[in-house]
Amino acid sequence: MARTVCFISEKGGVGKTTACFEIAIALKRTHNLRVLIVDADYQRGGITGRLDSSLIKNFTAGSMPGINLFHKFQQLYSASPTTSGIDIRSSSFNIDFIPADPRLASVSEDKLPSGKTIRQNSELFFEHLMVIAKVLSGLQDQYDYILIDSHPEVSSLLRAAIFASDYAVSPVKLDLQSSIGVPTVIAEINGVNGDVSVMQSTLGTALTYNPTNFVGAIGMMAREYAGDLKDSEDTEYRRLNRFGTMFQHYITEGDGIRRAAQNRTSVRNIGMANARKQTAQVDAITVEFLAKCP
To answer: What are the distances in angstroms from CA 54 to CA 24, 50, 237?
Structure first.
């Protein structure tokens, strides 16, 4: 049975996609686990481009070929029968993925058909929340981990990703501007868990739902001096620990990961000292990840 983990950040440019991608690579290469990535970052499509660069042109074109999450939401909006089938692509990294589609920007409960009663409207809202979970339900035995890379904003799509996940992590830069979003992330997770509890009680549904568990923030692009975090970043690290468990290990700033992103590959494939240091950091974080998301 797969464990599903959502990577969430309220702010872009904090290393969320890099964390998701590099942890996925480590899970596969270092731990020999079966991994599926769901790219729900419809604007950037960063992981989709890294896993298959030929798909990048589709973000300029405005749509992704094949059946993806966009079509699952559209079925609900058009009151069509919902199907679980979705296109899963393979990559040269031996990691499967569901690509992002720029049309996912249109996902919103506002597009749901109107029910005739409050109960019907509540049921439609619940169905919207369950779209991603329904897609992944038939894939649970095929993978050990399913990682969802989300778009950096609070949205209907993010809520559906949270609902589908067993765990959530929040990659952040260790500065005030980036890290203030962590309490917002935790509040959104708690909001989804609370809404599901209310809807279960109101609708009398027998659905089994295990609340999504926030397991911590991952420090990205951290700066060190003499092997320790710089004072300002150490202050943010300790402050974040008050809102939720920080991962003990972090990834430092450096050209290894930047060069890997430019080459659409993993940092472990880059031959330079900084890349080797960052690879060791990714591996340490992945060990923590496995312990926090068993």
So the answer is: 20, 9, 38
Q: State how far the alpha carbon of 5 is from the alpha carbons of 8, 50, 106, 110, 121, in Å.
A: 10, 19, 23, 27, 29
DSSP 199-221: HHHHHT-----PPPEEEEEEEES
Q: Please give the single-letter amino acid code of residue 119.
A: R
User: Could you tell me the residue ranges of all domains in the chain?
Assistant: 3-292
**Partners of 149 in the beta sheet?**
7, 39
| C-alpha count within 13 angstroms, C-beta hemisphere, residue 44 | 18
pLDDT beyond 90 at 87 = yes
* 12-30 tens-digit pLDDT: 889 999 999 999 999 999 9
- For 175-197, what is each residue's pLDDT tens digit? 877 778 888 899 999 999 998 98
Sequence-ordered alpha helix ranges (H) in 112-266: 118-129, 131-137, 156-164, 176-179, 181-203, 231-240, 255-262
Look at the block and give the residue holding tokens 């320790």. 228
**Domain 3-292 annotated CATH 3.40.50.300:** yes
For residues 113 and 61, give the distance between their C-alpha atoms in angstroms, rounded to a whole number. 28
Q: Are 127 and 4 in contact (CB under 8 A)?
A: no
More confident of the two residues 45 and 28: 28
